[in-house]
Write a structure and sequence with these properties.
Length: about 475
């Protein structure tokens, strides 16, 4: 049993001892390892949701077929749950949630489904709602205890707020745009009729315990205030409020607002900051394997508790190995297929697979990557409970650390060190020609043939089907 600190001490000691004699040769052989090398099994996902197979919990020499019942469709979506990479270990809490498992609320005019800490127990700092409004439909005027950040998925809505000091902000947002309302600010949301279908958006709250069931609603409040108090408050007869509904409506149909925002304004906008942000008009930064757009309070001033990155990853590309120093991350998949492994310290790691509409939650400091495992461009959002976007790139850390120090740990050669990027790459391309897979109906027979002659630590899954490639 070696502890990491002992290993580190040994590594540093051996470097120090070797230094005087090997200072002229920067590619001196690394010191002998004190533990066996890590497995060279590439640990590819063994299938994807398009694979024409019945998935089995078998990887290499481990596992066995399923004799009992099987939810084949869920297993197709989750290859790294049923047959995890051998690098997974320990007891890492679940960090995946599909909105498809959320309990939806249906209304005339739309729907809303949420995810919070009750669904994903580790998601203590961010909760979310996916909401749909038909053209003209209104999300009842409301406010809540947490701040709200939103990303438009489709269509156009008009949003507005009145701040505690009586300033006004009203604006329209479309696909890929954002809004942010600080905690407790009243706000109004209505779908425009720019597209006849109305709109759909993602709402992010800066607390894991937020629930759509506990928002403060205009009608719901007034239905619970004595009528004579309402009359005194507004200096009208009680009969003026004869037709308020007896409870909140949450979502309800209405006529669409006038097309131009300016025609809907009671007074011109006069807040010192904007509460919407046209992210769709920002060009993504190109990276080796995709693009990224970062949006935080340095450009979207109002958004002091939430920041985000909108990322695309091309086929076979990967969002590089990294972590976020103190910020919890809530991830949302917009299109494509992906897998994420989180590293939770103490040898603990867990891998999950994601499709469009799925959520991941990555606690602060957990190392992770996001790999495009599909055959289309992967698009996703990284959303943080922080006004500032920050990440630590593993490649950059290694590239900017004295090479001998890095070699003492990883026993890599100079050519490999030279590949570490001093600039943050964010999204990296495919490292080498990826293996070719056959589309297969007989995963089991291939697995058994492949594994008969190989031990559990050989790269024997290299030629297994992944569900795409040759037909
Ligand atoms: C991606 O995979 C799906 C399912 O196997 C297939 O129908 C589609 O043609 C593939 N697309 C490309 C671009 O290869
Ligand atoms: C939206 O606009 C279209 C075209 O102008 C119209 O046919 C439709 O009735 C409108 N929908 C609503 C809900 O007003
Ligand atoms: C706020 O929005 C207005 C209207 O879109 C725009 O002209 C202005 O530049 C924005 N201000 C900031 C600080 O982004
Ligand atoms: C964004 O990219 C488009 C197309 O390349 C270009 O026309 C436009 O000027 C760019 N916008 C900004 C703000 O850089
Ligand atoms: C991605 O990898 C697959 C096999 O794993 C290969 O068939 C395909 O050509 C690669 N695509 C790109 C765009 O690199």
């Amino acid at each position: 049993m070696y502890s990491w600190s002992l290993l580190l001490t040994l590594a540093i000691l051996s470097t120090a001892l070797a230094a005087p004699s090997s200072s002229e040769t920067s590619s001196a052989p690394a010191p002998s390892p004190t533990v066996p090398y890590a497995s060279d099994d590439p640990n590819y996902p063994l299938w994807n949701l398009d694979s024409d197979i019945t998935p089995e919990p078998i990887r290499g020499g481990s596992g066995a077929t399923i004799l009992g019942p099987q939810n084949r469709l869920l297993d197709l979506q989750n290859p790294d749950a049923l047959a995890p990479p051998t690098t997974d270990n320990g007891d890492v809490p679940n960090f995946k949630w599909p909105f498809s498992l959320s309990h939806n609320r249906l209304y005339t005019g739309g729907w809303a489904r949420g995810q919070n800490v009750k669904d994903v127990p580790c998601a203590t700092d961010i909760a979310a709602v996916n909401m749909r409004l038909e053209a003209g439909a209104i999300r009842e005027m409301h406010w809540h205890i947490d701040a709200e950040w939103a990303y438009m998925l489709a269509g156009y809505v008009r949003v507005s707020t009145v701040t505690p000091d009586g300033k006004v902000y009203l604006a329209d947002v479309g696909p890929g745009d954002l809004w942010y309302f600080p905690a407790g600010f009243p706000h109004n949301i209505q779908a425009k009729n720019t597209t006849e279908e109305g709109a759909e958006f993602l709402l992010i709250f800066d607390s894991g315990s937020f629930s759509e069931d506990s928002t403060f609603l205009l009608i719901d409040w007034l239905a619970h205030v004595p009528k004579e108090v309402i009359a005194k408050n507004f200096q009208v007869d009680t009969s003026a409020f004869d037709h308020i509904p007896s409870r909140g409506l949450f979502i309800f149909p209405s006529d669409p607002p006038p097309p131009n925002a300016i025609d809907d304004m009671v007074v011109p906008n006069d807040t010192p900051v904007n509460y919407t942000f046209p992210l769709s008009q920002v060009n993504g930064t190109k990276s080796a394997g995709g693009t990224y757009k970062v949006v935080d309070s340095t450009m979207f001033t109002a958004s002091t508790t939430i920041s985000a990155a909108e990322i695309t990853v091309e086929v076979n590309g990967t969002r590089e190995l990294h972590w976020h120093p103190t910020e919890p991350e809530w991830t949302y998949f917009i299109s494509g297929e992906a897998r994420i492994s989180v590293y939770a310290s103490s040898s603990n790691a867990r891998t999950s697979d994601f499709q469009a509409g799925d959520i991941a939650y990555i606690p602060p400091t957990f190392g992770h990557y996001v790999e495009n495992t599909g055959n289309t461009t992967l698009k996703f959002l990284e959303i943080f409970k922080s006004g500032l976007f920050r990440d630590v790139s593993l490649s950059q850390w290694l590239a900017l650390t004295p090479p001998e120090h890095v070699k003492a740990h990883l026993q890599v050669d100079d050519a490999t060190i030279a590949k570490f990027s001093r600039d943050k790459q964010v999204v990296v391309g495919p490292a080498q020609p990826a293996p070719t897979y056959a589309r297969s109906q007989s995963l089991k027979s291939q697995l058994h043939t492949e594994t008969d002659s190989l031990d559990a630590y050989s790269p024997h899954v290299r030629n297994l089907p992944r569900g795409f490639g040759e037909k």
